[in-house]
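Slide 14.
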Amino acid sequence: MTFETLGLPESLTRAVADAGYDAPTDVQTAAIPPALAGSDLMVAAATGSGKTASFILPALQRVLLARADPSKRRDKGTVYGPRILVLTPTRELAIQIAKAAVTYGRHVPGLRVATVVGGVPYPAQLKALRGPLDILISTPGRLLDHLQTGKAVLDHVEMLVLDEADRMLDMGFIDDITTIADHLPKARQTVMYSATFIGHVARLAQNMLRDPKRVEVASHTDTHANIEQRLHWADHFAHKNALLDHILTQREVEQALVFTSTQIDADRLADRLAELGHAVASLHGGMPQGRRNRVLQGLRSRQLRILVATDVAARGIDVPTISHVINYGLPMKPEDYVHRIGRTGRAGRDGLAVTLAERNDAGMIRRIQQFTTQQIPVATIAGLEPTGPQPRLFPQRPGSGPAPAGRGPRHDSRRPHEHRAHPHRGHEQRPQGAGHDEPRRNPFDRPLPNRDERRAPAARPGPAAFKGRPKPQRSRPGGYAR
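Slide 15: predicted structure.
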């Protein structure tokens, strides 16, 4: 199948060919035709599958159709707002989508694309919102700021795209998304992209979409054929650093993306690797937007060989030359592991995803394997083998081996909290015959004393009790008192 058979106009197919793409991917083949027909969509697709083009190309065709419709002609000097609104969780992903819109819309005359994200001065964004605008890509928080001040006009939005909706909800944007959707026209097309449609993501789709069509190309349980996964167990923090240093010095590493759990860890690890002579930089949400753009540009231009980043900042990184993804710090949620390893093995290349874990990370490794329904192969490096035993990720099945020491099998049917009475522990043997059915009494139960028999608390001595006594002296350094 080709892009021409999907029903796209000639100006868009020519732009796709100029970008170097000959055939559509699976998600593009499944999502573009119903999107062109105006249907609401729920698309479950993995990262690196070409999902950005699957909603940008239908959005560009909607722009072309609106320009050809005389009833939708816009007068000069009037603020109409965008025709297409795309909401993304991070600034990097918004910038990436904007570049894709410009690339695929190069043959659309007068196409206006703007990004409204945090960390950027307001004047430039206000100027873009006041001028003619076709496509607006924004993060929910900054767009809500402009909406509350009356600077953003969303009365003429024809298509709403929620990219990586699961991540936006994890970041707490549920109220912002709902508020923005309330300001949009009811007769609009809504397209939602997410890794999974369960829980709160499914409830959001139920409230915002009308008779949506489901497109499920890839799920979190699919195997990544072009991404090799490895798990290295580390004894301690120094051992983990030694494993990381050995991996980064390999000649096979073209460019590496190292993930940490916190922003502080990203800065500290980048400083340590820079002292070792690596071309490295950190990337996280606490950095100004200008610096983040320079770091990403250095990664794309291959001035940087190693990028140390957090989960939030890494959304939207699309660099095909990343050959290694290293989980130096494990993610907070198993879903983020799938997004992490999806940063490598892009554009038909092979990639390697390495996870460095300590014994206290066994719980998260277990959750990741249960979420992906796949076992991460354990690997070792000669000379850096762990000295301790490998953690047991899953409980031992009955009959598969001996019981742990100190936990012998129970030979009675009693529950753990039901103890057995023994004569040598102070329990009296129950007599046989009469009274055999009486309930067993607890030998530690004692009747409470009456109110009159209770001992009154001792009264605290007053100042008169200390009259005539010498005043206590505070000890001084050196063992003497004043």
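Speaker note: The mean pLDDT is 82.
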